[in-house]
């Protein structure tokens, strides 16, 4: 008896994708813009965290790892630009397509979910410290549910480093096996089935874009994880609001009100980032998976280079646009750092002010002496004072 999953794969392989202007021009253009913004933005952020901040806090550790993940994303973005523009001209066995399948796909998903875990942990850890160190009319129930040593651990840099290492291990260990199975087993198997009927599978094809039944089913676990973490951040914000209401009834609220307001704002920023960038993709992904693998068998012809467009062509393009929205988060994260962390914000403002002052002095020296050599030396000294190089 024929394996149903094999029949489904062959059906997918028998249709071609008909890329529209969105795939051929819009996605490559936005990914190119993303590369030009995410790379310098995250390089600057990482440099500030590592070289310009004299006293590193646990939050700086989390944001440093987030910047590293975003830099990895920024490096691979040009491959996505080329994939959407030229993927329909590559054979699935060509080296560029293999790079996309075996290298780019795992890094993309690792970036999305390591960022999700880090952002959630930043929100929850700040929430826990807030609940422990601010006053209210009565203690929060969250304090009694968590061990006493947990709160002190949250303030240690060593704990933050260990937590980040664990998050990387969990993310890589959970995503790599699924993406490897997808790229090695499902895509390769469908390619062989297509070659048996005398066809050459292209890279931008239903097989690659839809994925197999096993990998798509396992991806639902990641969607479930997202909604669990998303609701945790939302719940923490609601508890903070309740805590603020209680603290206002306390006579000794002067020292804690600023902390309450700051943490509340930070959790809101994280919630907005998750809602705008990641929520739409994770809402659509289960719908897309259901449409792709739980529908009746599709009529198909013998080769993927025919003019018959896949019935889910528009849904595939919508999925890619929502995935782009999730990837865009890596370019907006430096803005989030600016809003989340006061020390980071102060260092960036000092850098901007210093550069503006140096530029004005340089213009003055040039206009009066015609020489900039002495000013160049002064700029170097200013950077040493600022960032401790």
From TrEMBL:
TM region(s), chain numbering: 30-50, 62-86, 110-131, 165-184, 218-242, 263-284
Pfam families (UniProt xref): 7tm_1
Keyword annotations: Membrane, Transmembrane, Transmembrane helix
Alphabetical list of SUPFAM superfamilies matching this protein: Family A G protein-coupled receptor-like
Gene3D superfamilies for the chain: Rhodopsin 7-helix transmembrane proteins
Record carries keyword Protein transport: no
The name this protein goes by in its record: G-protein coupled receptors family 1 profile domain-containing protein
Organism: Ameca splendens
């Amino acid at each position: 008896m024929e394996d149903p999953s094999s029949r489904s794969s062959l059906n997918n392989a028998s249709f071609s994708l008909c890329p529209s202007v969105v795939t051929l021009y819009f996605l490559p253009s936005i990914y190119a813009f993303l590369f030009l913004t995410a790379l310098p933005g995250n390089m600057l952020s990482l440099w500030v965290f590592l070289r310009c901040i004299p006293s590193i806090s646990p939050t700086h550790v989390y944001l440093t790892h987030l910047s590293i993940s975003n830099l990895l994303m920024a490096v691979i973005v040009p491959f996505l630009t080329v994939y959407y523009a030229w993927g329909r001209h590559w054979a699935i066995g060509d080296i560029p397509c293999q790079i996309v399948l075996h290298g780019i796909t795992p890094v993309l998903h690792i970036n999305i979910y390591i960022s999700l875990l880090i952002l959630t942990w930043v929100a929850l850890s700040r929430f826990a410290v807030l609940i422990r160190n601010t006053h209210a009319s009565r203690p929060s129930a969250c304090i009694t549910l968590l061990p006493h040593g947990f709160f002190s651990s949250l303030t240690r840099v060593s704990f933050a480093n260990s937590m980040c290492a664990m998050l990387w291990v969990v993310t890589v260990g959970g995503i790599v096996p699924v993406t490897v199975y997808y790229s090695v087993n499902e895509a390769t198997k469908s390619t062989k089935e297509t070659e048996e009927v005398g066809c050459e599978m292209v890279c931008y094809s239903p097989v690659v874009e839809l994925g197999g039944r096993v990998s798509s089913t396992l991806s639902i676990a990641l969607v479930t994880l997202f909604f669990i973490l998303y609701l945790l951040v939302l719940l923490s914000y609601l508890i903070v609001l309740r805590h603020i209401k209680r603290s206002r009834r306390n006579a000794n609220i002067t020292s804690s009100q600023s902390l309450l307001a700051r943490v509340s704002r930070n959790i809101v920023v994280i919630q907005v980032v998750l809602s705008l960038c990641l929520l739409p993709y994770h809402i659509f992904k289960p719908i897309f998976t259901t449409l792709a693998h739980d529908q009746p068998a599709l009529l198909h012809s013998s080769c993927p280079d025919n003019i018959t467009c896949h019935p889910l062509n528009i849904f595939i393009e919508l999925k890619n646009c929502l995935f782009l929205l999730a990837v865009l988060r890596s370019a907006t994260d430096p803005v989030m750092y600016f809003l989340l962390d006061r020390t980071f914000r102060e260092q960036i403002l000092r850098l901007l002010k210093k550069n503006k002052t140096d530029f004005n002095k340089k213009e003055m020296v040039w206009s009066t002496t015609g020489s900039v050599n002495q000013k160049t030396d002064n700029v170097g000294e200013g950077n040493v004072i600022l960032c401790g190089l």
